[in-house]
């Protein structure tokens, strides 16, 4: 087989794989958007290309009969608190492990690596009891607390790897100018770590918007529902038939994520590429 023929076969295989992956990704998305524009509420009478386009389901979500805006507000509160809190906590933890030598540092890194192997769901019974003991069960504060604690091992390891790529000579130069550890962290490392912190912020902003299992365990009051919990109730009841409204609500979840992504886009590629280069 000639090299030219082999090259054509490789390119064909690549395009074939990309086509299959595109269908797997975009087909459910197109179905969801199409379903949200169908009239009626039935799943079986909906089509991917509606015969009569309608925005009635979107209008209903913003009507007084729906609690969708309340769920949206709760989800955004949790998402922004988780994103901001994760960036602050992760930056301090990663800075300590990257720049300081202390007893238990090596074992702490091993523990972070080990904890990444176990999902937070394994600790849900203990977390449920803990939140009940401190009076934060069935509250957004308790939910935020679990998200913040659960993200530390992975993100601290990721950000530490990025901090390790920043030359320590910059720290030494700042020390000569009289800067202390906090000033070095704030004025030297943080400006250079914007890409990886943007990655942490985006990932931890997205997690509460998509997560269903954790809020379903922690939250029980309807006034504290997040979007995932609220939308699930559209189709959970025995006689519920609100699949088109469910689809419309799902489509709108993408709005804040797309906004944050566009805002942080210039940092994301370099942050993802550099975070795991050293550890």
Distance between the termini: 44 Å
Radius of gyration: 23 Å
By CATH, the superfamily of the largest domain comes out as: MetI-like
Give the tally of β-strands. Answer: 0
Please work out how many helical segments DSSP would assign.
12
Strand content: under 5%
Q: Oligomer, anyone? A: single chain
Report the principal-axis shape. Answer: globular
- Compute the number of structural domains: 2
Order of helices and strands: HHHHHHHHHHHH
Largest sheet: none
CATH fold-level label of the largest domain: MetI-like fold
Fold blueprint:
Blueprint: H1 3-36, H2 56-61, H3 68-99, H4 105-115, H5 124-133, H6 140-164, H7 169-176, H8 181-192, H9 194-210, H10 213-218, H11 227-236, H12 243-274
Membrane topology: Multi-pass membrane protein
Domain ABC transmembrane type-1: 72-264
Keywords: Cell membrane, Membrane, Transmembrane, Transmembrane helix, Transport
Give an account of the 3D structure.
The protein has 279 residues and is mostly helical. It folds into 2 domains: 3-58; 62-275, Orthogonal Bundle (MetI-like fold), CATH 1.10.3720.10. 73% of the residues lie in helices and 0% in strands. The chain has helices at residues 3-36, 56-61, 68-99, 105-115, 124-133, 140-164, 169-176, 181-192, 194-210, 213-218, 227-236, 243-274. α3 runs antiparallel to α9 and α7 (169-176) crosses α8 (181-192). Mean pLDDT is 85; it is low at 275-279. Belongs to the binding-protein-dependent transport system permease family. This is Maltose ABC transporter permease. Residues 72-264 form the ABC transmembrane type-1 domain. Its main location: membrane. InterPro entries: BP-dep_ABC_trans_perm, MetI-like, MetI-like_sf.
């Amino acid at each position: 087989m000639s090299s030219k023929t082999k090259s054509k076969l490789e390119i064909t295989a690549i395009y074939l794989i990309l086509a299959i992956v595109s269908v797997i990704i975009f087909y459910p998305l197109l179905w969801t958007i199409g379903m949200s524009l169908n009239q009626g509420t039935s799943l079986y009478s909906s089509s991917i290309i509606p015969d009569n386009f309608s925005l009635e389901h979107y209008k209903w979500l913003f009507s007084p009969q729906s609690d969708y805006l309340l769920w949206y507000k709760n989800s955004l509160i949790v998402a922004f608190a988780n994103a901001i809190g994760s960036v602050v906590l992760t930056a301090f933890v990663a800075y300590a492990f990257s720049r300081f030598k202390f007893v238990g540092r090596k074992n702490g890194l091993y523990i972070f690596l080990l904890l990444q192997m176990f999902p937070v769901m394994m600790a849900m019974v203990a977390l449920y009891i803990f939140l009940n003991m401190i009076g934060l069960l069935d509250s957004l504060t308790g939910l935020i607390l679990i998200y913040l604690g659960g993200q530390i091992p992975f993100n601290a390891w990721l950000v530490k790897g990025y901090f390790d790529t920043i030359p320590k000579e910059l720290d030494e130069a700042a020390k000569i100018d009289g800067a202390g550890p906090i000033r070095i962290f704030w004025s030297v490392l943080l400006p250079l770590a914007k890409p990886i912190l943007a990655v942490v912020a985006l990932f931890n902003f997205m997690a509460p918007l998509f997560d269903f299992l954790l809020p379903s365990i922690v939250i029980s009051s309807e006034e504290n529902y997040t979007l995932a919990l609220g939308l699930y109730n559209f189709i959970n009841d025995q006689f519920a038939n609100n699949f088109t409204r469910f689809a419309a609500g799902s489509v709108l979840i993408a709005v804040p994520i797309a906004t944050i992504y566009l805002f942080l886009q210039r940092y994301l590629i370099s942050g993802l590429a550099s975070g795991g280069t050293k550890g």
